[in-house]
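Input (structure):
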């Protein structure tokens, strides 16, 4: 299909809606209420990369962040079949990854209260959207390589160009006075 405005809008809504659905379902399937009782936040790679070691008062927020990272990762795995434009497609097109990244950026912009906090500040129920987007891009590319290797043949350089283009577009839309 052509990458016209209608195609982009329909794909963006479908991919982001499916991702949100799988993200929320992941919270239930992963049993985050039970996990909260047994979780040791300091052992998580994502938390060690982006946040300082927690103190006791921040533990609950950090656990919530970990739940979000975990649900994000599972949603990225489950969205893979939907990245193909049609059921008949044998590959995942770069344009659909681009649309997904732009859409997720816009989704975080719309739903997340944490854009106005410092990047590494632990505040609110969800991690900073920029950190989540960075990890989602990482998760989606990893998931494609593991679960759909035969559908994706892009080099690391092409992937980086694609991601940078999508984020630039999403940021441009966010800053535009005409983004309504």
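Output (sequence):
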């Amino acid at each position: 299909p052509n990458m016209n405005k209608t195609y982009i809008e329909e794909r963006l809504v479908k991919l982001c809606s499916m991702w949100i659905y799988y993200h929320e379902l992941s919270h239930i399937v992963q049993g985050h209420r039970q996990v909260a009782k047994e979780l040791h936040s300091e052992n998580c790679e994502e938390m060690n990369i982006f946040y300082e070691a927690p103190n006791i008062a921040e533990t609950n927020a950090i656990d919530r962040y970990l739940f979000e990272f975990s649900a994000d990762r599972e949603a990225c795995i489950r969205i893979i079949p939907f990245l193909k434009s049609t059921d008949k497609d044998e590959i995942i097109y770069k344009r659909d990854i681009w649309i997904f990244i732009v859409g997720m950026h816009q989704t975080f912009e719309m739903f997340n209260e944490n854009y106005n906090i410092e990047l590494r500040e632990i505040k609110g129920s969800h991690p900073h959207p920029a950190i989540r987007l960075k990890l989602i891009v990482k998760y989606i590319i990893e998931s494609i390589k593991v679960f759909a290797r035969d559908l994706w043949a892009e080099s690391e350089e092409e992937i980086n160009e694609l991601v940078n283009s999508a984020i630039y577009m999403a940021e441009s839309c966010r800053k535009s006075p005409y983004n309504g």
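Notes: Residues 109 and 122 are 18 Å apart (CA to CA). Helices lie at 5-29, 32-38, 45-50, 59-78, 80-83, 94-111, 129-147, 156-175.
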